């Protein structure tokens, strides 16, 4: 590939994450493909309505931290948590065991 050709976002993100990690990254750390999937395909995974009010903030291993714009969405996420986890595996390739919700101020 030539230097002036566009690079896929996922490939670029993979290179950035790899450059930030020391060799021998622990198993509990999220892979670059999971990071790229969650952050790069968030709207596709969760849908437009949810994405308008809920944004991923951090993926730490299998824990996803999200920020909601209203406390009501924090409650709604509790009901949607199982299906959200399934969609993130299906669309983003990310296995999420826990979702931490933060309400924006």
In words, what does this structure look like?
- With about 100 residues, this protein is α+β, with helices and mostly antiparallel strands.
- It has a single domain, classed as GMP Synthetase, Chain A, domain 3 (2-Layer Sandwich).
- Helix content is about 50%, strand content about 20%.
- It is built from five helices and three strands, in the order ααααββαβ.
- It has a three-stranded mixed sheet with strand order 1-2-3.
- A hairpin with a 2-residue loop joins β1 and β2.
- The longest helix is centred in the C-terminal third of the chain and has 22 residues.
- It starts with 8 loop residues before the first helix and ends with a strand.
- The relative contact order is 0.16.
Determine the CATH topology.
GMP Synthetase, Chain A, domain 3
Q: Structural class per helix/strand content? A: alpha+beta
- Rg measurement, Å: 15 Å
Main-sheet strand order equals 1-2-3
Q: Please give the share of residues in helix.
A: 40-55%
Task: Summarize the topology.
Layout: H1 9-20, H2 32-40, H3 42-46, H4 48-51, E1 54-60, E2 63-68, H5 71-92, E3 98-103
Helix pairs in contact: 1-2
In short:
With 105 residues, the chain is of the alpha+beta class. It has one domain (28-103): GMP Synthetase, Chain A, domain 3 (2-Layer Sandwich), CATH 3.30.300.
Output the keywords.
105 residues; alpha+beta; GMP Synthetase, Chain A, domain 3; three-stranded mixed beta sheet; 5 helices; 50% helix; 18% strand
């Amino acid at each position: 590939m030539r230097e002036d050709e566009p690079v896929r976002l996922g490939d670029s993100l993979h290179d950035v994450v790899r450059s930030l990690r020391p060799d021998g990254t622990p198993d509990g750390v999220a892979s670059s493909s999971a990071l790229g999937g969650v952050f790069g395909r968030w709207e596709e995974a969760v849908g437009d309505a949810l994405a308008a009010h809920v944004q991923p903030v951090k993926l730490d291993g299998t824990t996803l931290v999200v920020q909601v714009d209203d406390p009501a969405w924090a409650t709604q996420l509790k009901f949607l948590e199982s299906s959200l986890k399934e969609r993130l595996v299906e669309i983003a390739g990310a296995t999420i065991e826990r979702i931490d919700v933060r309400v924006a101020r």
